[in-house]
Amino acid sequence: MLNREYAEYLGKEKLALPQEFRRAAGGPKGFYSSGELTVVRAATQGVPLTLRTDDLPPDELIFGRSAVMQEFRQKIPKFAATNVPLLIQGESGTGKGVLARYIHSRSKFAAGPFVNLNCAAIPGTLLESELFGYERGAFTGAYSSKPGLVEMAHMGTLFLDGIDEIDLPLQAKLLQLLQDTQFSRIGGGEDITVQIRVICATSRPLEHEIAAGRFRADLYYRINVARVELPALRLRIDDVPQLAMHFYERLRKRHKSSAGPVSPVLLRLFEKHTWPGNIRELENLMERYVILGSEETIAEELANWERTQVAPERSTNGPIQLKNVTRKAVRELESRIILSALEANSWNRKRAARDLRISYRTLLYKIRQAGLTAKRSSEAANAPTNVPVASD
Questions:
Q1: What is the pLDDT of residues 347-391, one digit of tens each?
Q2: Which residues pair with 86 in a beta bridge?
Q3: Is 370 left (phi over 0), alpha (psi -120 to 50) or beta?
Q4: From its phi and psi, is residue 118 left (phi > 0), alpha (psi between -120 and 50) or beta?
Q5: Where does residue 275 fall: left (phi above 0), alpha (psi -120 to 50 degrees), or beta otherwise?
Q6: ∠ CA 49-217-74 to the nearest 5 degrees?
Q7: Strand 36-42 to strand 10-16: parallel, antiparallel, or no bridges (unpaired)?
Q8: 20 to 30 Å CA-CA from 335: which of 135, 170, 237, 329?
Q9: Total-model pTM
Q10: Half-sphere exposure of 391 (CA within 13 A, CB side)
Q11: Does residue 268 sit in the same domain as residue 124?
């Protein structure tokens, strides 16, 4: 239920709209103004809602040179030429947002807005008003009407990143939008008709979410009219040097860095790395490089990741017991993976369990078994008192 907390959660800002968007015919009544729109949006949104698509990297960089990406590239013009819903799947950090912007820029909606929403960044109780807007007096603190992102995307593209994070009741309303191209604001009685292209992205297999009862099968079939799956960076390793040099040039200018070009030795280390964080990990690594200017630091970081932490302690009294060494290696590797999942989800154990595809109870057992509870307690004790701790 929306209440006063919602009003405190929201912030106001001015958002300039593209010229083509302001001229678009047939927009929702009362939606356009003289070039600017006062948009009330969730304060946690860290990026503009209407994103530019004229600053995309060149095609050669987006699709690279690897065989798997060249085959992938052949499909994209067909998806861009149609306005049917598109589902982009792929691991976190593979570039799903960039691909969505690229497809928009090649579509018939290219002159309209590209509106992006990270569904995981906004609590489920607030997400409906962000998407569909509300009328004045719809809840405490709604002192004026507010158009939602669906209206903002009229004659353009609505990109829903993390579609699997949307709660079931809101999934039903989104399904109605996709079926009828109509919706109503919260507290409103009028149906509003929009023309939009919807692109959804997820890093989780939605089939698993359906089986777990967290995602509607009918919505899945509606957004899955066209589907692409972005390969992980480890499957297109030939593209790593080109991407690394691109990030080096761009980030060196941003930070006004004097760091020298990446050496062939470091590039060879890059090609041996498994890149669990995909392109985002590579970009972050290159940013650290241009800031620090030290290849040794980056090489050591890669080596620490790849190095097995379970080197057997050779006994002078007899042979190594392979079974014990293997068991220890598995435990320590499992512990590192669980810790990585917990940190990636700000120690929200329910989300980490979903990412790891194990039950919540199993995760709790493994956390205790690995002694990660004590590690978390130690970190929390040393953390500043004003830093919130994630709850389940």
A1: 888 888 887 878 888 888 888 888 886 556 555 555 554 444 455
A2: 199, 226
A3: alpha
A4: beta
A5: left
A6: 60
A7: antiparallel
A8: 237
A9: 0.68
A10: 1
A11: no
Whole-number Å distance between alpha carbons of 12 and 310: 53
CA distances from 151 to 147, 189, 194 (A): 6, 16, 7
What is the spatial distance between Cα 264 and Cα 268, in angstroms, rounded to a whole number? Answer: 6
Query: Could you tell me the two tokens for 195?
Result: 């023309």
Closest of 168, 157, 161, 155 to residue 124, by C-alpha: 168
Query: How distant is the alpha carbon of residue 63 from its chain centre?
Result: 19
Q: Are 238 and 219 members of one domain?
A: no
Phi, psi of 159 (to 5 degrees): -105, 115
Q: Is residue 152 in a domain? A: yes
- Examine the domain organization and report whether 225 and 239 are in the same domain: no
How many folded domains does the chain comprise? 3
- 50-92 confidence digits (pLDDT tens): 555 567 899 999 999 999 999 999 999 999 999 999 999 999 9
Distance of CA 121 to the CA centre of its chain: 9
Residue 344: which domain range? 322-382
- Please give the distance of CA 5 from its chain centroid, rounded to a whole number: 26
What are the φ and ψ backbone dihedral angles of 87, each rounded to 5 degrees? Answer: -110, 120
If asked whether residues 256 and 208 sit together in one domain, one would say: no
Segment holding 168, helix H or strand E = helix 168-180
The whole-angstrom separation of Cα 352 and Cα 356 is: 6
CA dist 282 and 38 (Å) reads 37
Give yes or no: residues 62 and 126 share one domain. Answer: yes
Q: Tell me: the pLDDT tens digits for 294-317?
A: 888 898 888 877 654 444 445 445
Q: Where are the beta strands (DSSP E) in 17-155?
A: 36-42, 86-89, 114-118
| Phi–psi pair at 74, nearest 5 degrees | -65, -25
Half-sphere exposure of 268 (CA within 13 A, CB side): 3
